[in-house]
Design goal:
It contains 4 helices and 5 strands; from the N terminus they run H-E-E-E-H-E-E-H-H. It has 179 residues and is of the alpha+beta class. It folds into 2 domains: 101 residues, HIT family, subunit A; 51 residues. Strands 1-2-3-5-4 form a 5-stranded antiparallel β-sheet, with helices on one face. The longest helix has 34 residues. 16% of the residues are buried. The structure holds adenosine monophosphate and zinc ion.
Length: 179
C-alpha cells in the first residue's frame, strides 16, 4: 500500500495517528473530522496516498462514492439531520489543506447557521458561454484508457475461448467419425 511519510491522512490510515473511525474496509477509511463544521462531520479517505480526485483511478472512484453514500446514510440517521453537504476540495487554490484525497460529509440542520461559502454570481459576456461550453465538452475523455485496455483484453479472451471451443467441437466430430 503506497503511503507518503509526511502525510497526516496516510498516518491515520496506518493507525500511527489516532482517529475516531466510523467505517473501514480494505481500501477506504471514514473518521470524524477533528474540527467539525457540525457534530458528526466525517471525512472519507482512500487508504493509499492519492493526492486528489483527478488522480484516483476510475474504478476506485466508483467504489469511493459508493462508500461515501453508505456512510452518509449512516450519518443522517445517527445525527437525525435534516440534510447533508458533501464537500470535496481539489488543490490548495480550492481550499484543500491536506493533499490526500478526502470527501467531507457534513450533517445539516434547519437554521444551523453554518455557511459553506456562497457562490459568487458571475456572468458571461456575449458568446463566451458557448466557447467555454464547447471547449470543456471537447476535453472530456469519452472513456478512461484503463477501461479501454480492460475491454480489449476481455474481448481477446472471449475470442480465444470461442476458438478453443470450436477446436474442441472439431476434435469430438473427428473422433466420432473414426469410431
Ligand atoms: P480540506 O481543507 O478539505 O483539506 O480538509 C481537511 C480537513 O481535515 C479539515 O476539516 C480538518 O479539520 C481535518 N483534519 C486535519 N487533521 C485531522 C486529524 N488529525 N483528524 C481528523 N481530521 C483532521
Ligand atoms: Zn497521504
Amino acid at each position: 500500500m503506497p503511503f507518503a511519510d509526511d502525510c497526516i491522512f496516510c498516518q491515520i490510515a496506518q493507525k500511527k495517528i489516532q482517529s475516531n473511525i466510523v467505517y473501514e474496509d480494505e481500501n477506504f477509511l471514514a473518521f470524524l473530522d477533528i474540527h467539525p463544521a457540525n457534530k458528526g462531520h466525517v471525512l472519507v479517505i482512500t487508504k493509499n496516498h492519492i493526492e486528489d480526485l483527478l488522480k484516483l483511478p476510475e474504478e476506485q472512484a466508483k467504489e469511493f462514492f459508493s462508500v461515501v453514500q453508505r456512510v452518509a446514510n449512516g450519518i443522517k440517521i445517527a445525527t437525525n439531520s435534516d440534510a447533508l453537504n458533501i464537500v470535496q476540495n481539489n488543490g490548495a487554490a480550492a481550499g484543500q489543506a491536506i493533499p490526500h484525497v478526502h470527501i467531507h460529509i457534513i450533517p445539516r440542520f434547519e437554521k444551523d447557521g453554518l455557511s459553506l461559502g456562497v457562490f459568487r454570481q458571475g456572468k458571461y459576456e456575449g458568446n463566451e458561454i458557448l466557447a467555454i461550453r464547447d471547449l470543456i465538452k471537447s476535453k472530456i475523455p469519452e472513456k478512461r484508457i484503463e477501461r479501454k485496455i480492460q475491454e480489449i483484453e476481455e474481448k481477446e479472451e472471449k475470442q480465444k475461448e470461442q476458438k478453443r471451443s470450436a477446436q474442441h467441437i472439431r476434435h469430438i466430430r473427428r473422433e466420432t467419425e473414426i469410431a
